[in-house]
Amino acid sequence: MAPSKKTWGWLHRRTESFKAQSQSLISTSRPVSYLHPVQEEQRQENGQGSSNGSGSPVQQSHEQDGRGSTVPTNSSSHPHANMSSVPQPKEKDNLPPPVVQTGPRDSSDAENGTYSPKMNNLKELLMREIDGSRASAPLTAYCFMTGFIDAVCFSAIFVWCAFQTGNSVQLALALARLFNGAHDYSFHIADRQALCSVLSFIFGAFIGRLGNKIGSKTRLWMTLGTFIQALFTMAAAIAIWKSGQPSVSDSRDDPAWGNVASFVCVGFMSASMGLQGIMGKRLNTQFTTTVVLTTTWCELMTEPQLFHFRRLVRSRDHKVMAILFLFIGGFTGRAILDKIGSAGTLGVGAGVRFLITLSWLFVPVKKTSKN
User: Fold this and answer.
1) What SS3 state is found at 87?
2) Cα(61)–Cα(18) distance, rounded to whole angstroms?
3) Three-state DSSP class for 251?
């Protein structure tokens, strides 16, 4: 039995109703805010032109049947035909330019040193504390430099740059002369040089307190502090070279150095020894301060294992090394002084200090205790 015209009309209306519902659910137009200003203007003009008619394109092309379903009046029109009059924007032109990040991802990366593994490894190498018990090589070289520098200073003016005990007693004797009845109020040049040495030594030791900010036992501070000592020694060499003074004095009453440049030389030498002394003391080893032997001699004589010659005793052997190399340093300094003079000798001393600076990079770090 063939379907009637009424059945075909009912199916046609239901099909058009589904099309209209799908058109109302799926919107193909963009919001106005996403359009270019020129395209927005064109869209407004098109909207005004269409408003002169009976209604909007959607309202004109659809009507409602008795059931409330929307039925298009023109079956030949496509659901998207009305959108063809609206110019579609080019999405590529409206996209923002790509953001290229050239700096660190986070400002905390720069503070935490997380730029690269190499930078982290370098920071770890420099900021870790060294093992003072395994730093016998640079500390022995410190003792050598004590004798070396004192040989240059004492040969010229009979004043010590490292042994401040003698300079302090000399200043006490100068003060005592005011009360001996001779009324000698003069400030002798030897006393002035001793005062210059003491004050400069204190200044150098005060610079050593900067290690508390960095870490007095870190590899960075030991390397940096020794390099500052090398700079002080080189400055002393330049000062005495500019002074034009002789290198060796024949008597205590007639020191070889007496002008302003020579006082600058004494100041730089004493400052380098003050810095060396506090750096050696902070490591707390058997070498003690590396600038004075009085305490070292006393501790050596009280060593319980002093006469155990058949085996190595670190506490005893390190004290012996400190005394021996200070003696070798004084002998070497005077031998070079007689050949090339004070300026050249101090230049050699600056080179030795630079080698000591590099040696701190190879000292093993302190082992952390595992709980």
Assistant:
1) coil
2) 15
3) strand
